[in-house]
Amino acid sequence: MSAIMSSGIPVGQQQAQTQQLQLPPEDVHAPAHLIAVGSVFELILEFLKECMQLGPLYSFSQPMWVLKTRLLYRRIQTFPAPRLQEVDESGNAVRRELQLQPITWRKIRRDEGALGLWSGWQARMCHQALRAGLAQTCFEVLLFMPWNDQWGILTKFLGAMTVATAVTHPLDVVQTRMAAGLPGYQGVGVYHGVMRVMRDNDAYQGLGRSLALGLLSAPVRFAWVRYPLSLAWMAAVYPLDRQSTLGRLQRTREDTEG
């Protein structure tokens, strides 16, 4: 009876079944090429899913984003204060400050038409969808590696977010400049906008602040903190958000096109 388990299976037979269930190392871990192919399909599916989810949301929120971005861009335009040199009645050269018109939805619509309120909508949606899909894909790939305890998973998650933010930052620069109506970014497509920031060496303007903002806003974005703490959290990081937007609007050289 000592050779019989409580389930009625002899010890020898049970050991044989256990040995059959033990897989060789090459079967435990998926081959690298299967992981790569699966990651590409996962990225495409995540991108399409995010586009379907974010498209309607950004359609409603884009006018507010355009107005906010242009108000921030006005700070760059007015610092230092623009001055106009004139000649008075006595023939002396004088300089006076140039007063810019206030930014309003009505002014944007009058100057650029109704579509001006949705400037940069395509680039913004592509950026957010690609960043979310890339972060999810990178995170799932990192899970195949060791160190999957609580702190390891958190580190891999933040690392995936950092990689996705860095890779898609040129799109972030493009969508911000399109929304602000910068010369050279009005009436162009996403591809031409990306090519322009690459040509002007502006693709990674404000990257450091964007990375810091992404990490600091993660607790709210992924509901790690709840309302009303989340509202206070976002209010605390708003100055960094503002500086990040201003950094993406800064140009390394003056625009040479009309």
Automatic annotation (TrEMBL):
It is found in: Membrane. It comes from Hemiselmis andersenii. InterPro entries: MCP_dom_sf. GO terms for cellular component: membrane. This is Uncharacterized protein. Keywords: Membrane, Transmembrane.
